[in-house]
Design goal:
heterodimer; A: 128 residues; alpha+beta; three-stranded mixed β-sheet; three-stranded antiparallel β-sheet; 2 helices; 23% helix; elongated; B: 235 residues; alpha/beta; seven-stranded parallel β-sheet; 8 strands; 34% helix; globular
């Protein structure tokens, strides 16, 4: 949904880290995207590439780790993937907070956010 | 896949030279990209709690009846609570002007081009209200069933409003906002037959996505069902 603004944030953070560490180039940026977040990896990579051009990030690899979604059942203690009702009539899988094990309400415990995990920098060695 | 050269084995000259020229290192950050909004939402929540103010985030599709619902709730609750209203829209003060006629303090947020309210915009709007003189705030989000779900504002409860005139698939197409909401309002039920839309099906869809959600049917032209929304919010 907001891949452009998130990509911009990632690029800004990476550039500011590169500057802080006096690096010449950013080689790689690793992010973690929750499966239940509104960010699509393909669009994020697209905007990252566009925004990197002409900066220290040009050519940097964007590694996207997908954090699987996880729910926890408040009644039976089930912990695992969210139930998805696959209805071919909609060409769409509808996720549900119903417990796949006992059918009672669950809560999302993982996979909603997105974070920047690490940045790989390249720096000239100064022999001073 | 090529095997990485062993550290014990003979090193190639070029690799040694490259290692001397520069170094590659990783910076661990672990920084949430939603952190800014989450932190401000927490601040809003704490500020509202300090003044004992309850805030309701009213989300929903365009033209589903969010403003009409709020008008009816204000009519029902004006005697018991000191109410204020924050309106989020891309442009115009149409909604804010409508609510102002009910004699409650109103703050309009014009997002310009943004498709949702965020915690920072709400924090600014809260500055314009006299919280010491307020018990209850309705925050009307931008008409949209997607983005608002991911941006908590610091409200106590979230309502999502849909109506039968949007067709039969509004709920299943937007499951995530129903997961985030406490109350789902299905509005314009008086038009269900004319639209050929089953209110029961919409209700079932909402409950199968979020079994904890409270579903209320309304006709916000007449006010039918709005008392049940008020009850579902515990007001």
């Amino acid at each position: 949904m907001h891949e452009l603004s998130i990509a911009r944030k990632i690029v800004m953070i990476a550039l500011s880290e590169a500057k802080k560490h006096k690096a010449e180039r950013v080689l790689q940026v690793k992010v973690r995207v929750g499966e239940l977040s509104f960010i699509r990896p393909e669009q994020l990579s697209f905007w990252f590439k566009i925004l990197s051009q002409g900066t220290l990030l040009e050519g940097a690899e964007l590694v996207i780790d997908i954090e699987p979604g996880e729910v926890r059942c408040l009644s039976c203690g089930y912990k695992g993937p969210m139930m998805v009702e696959d209805d071919p009539a909609f060409h769409l899988a509808v996720p549900s907070l119903l417990c796949p094990s006992c059918g009672r309400p669950t809560k999302i415990t993982r996979g909603k956010g997105y974070s920047i995990v690490s940045i790989r920098l390249f720096k000239q060695r100064t022999n001073s | 896949m090529k095997k990485a050269p062993s550290l014990d084995g003979p090193m190639k000259m070029s690799e040694v030279v490259r290692a001397e020229e520069g170094e590659v290192f990783d910076i661990e950050l672990e920084e949430s990209l939603l952190k800014a909004n989450e932190e401000i939402a927490e601040k809003n929540r704490a500020l509202l709690a300090r003044y004992g103010v309850r805030a309701i985030d009213v989300m929903g599709s365009i033209g589903s009846g969010k403003t009409s619902l709020i008008e009816h709730m204000i009519r029902l609750l004006k005697g018991r609570y000191r109410i204020a209203y924050i309106a989020g829209d891309l442009t115009t003060t149409i909604d804010a002007d409508r609510i102002a006629e009910h004699g409650v303090p109103v703050v309009q947020i014009n997002t310009g081009k943004e498709c949702h309210l965020d915690a920072n915009l709400v924090a600014k709007a809260l500055e314009k209200l006299n919280l010491a003189e307020t018990d209850l705030i309705f925050i009307e989000n931008v008409g949209n069933l997607i983005c608002p779900a991911e941006f908590p504002l610091g409200a106590d409860a979230r309502i999502v409003v849909v109506s039968v005139t949007e067709g039969p698939f509004m709920v299943v197409k937007h499951p995530y906002i129903f997961m985030e909401a406490d109350v789902a309002v299905i509005n314009k039920v008086d038009l269900a037959d004319a639209m050929g839309v089953s209110v029961e099906k919409l209700e079932r869809d909402a409950l199968s996505i979020n079994p904890s959600i409270k579903v209320v049917r309304t006709n916000c032209r007449t006010g039918e069902g709005v008392e049940d929304v008020v009850k579902a919010l515990g007001l």
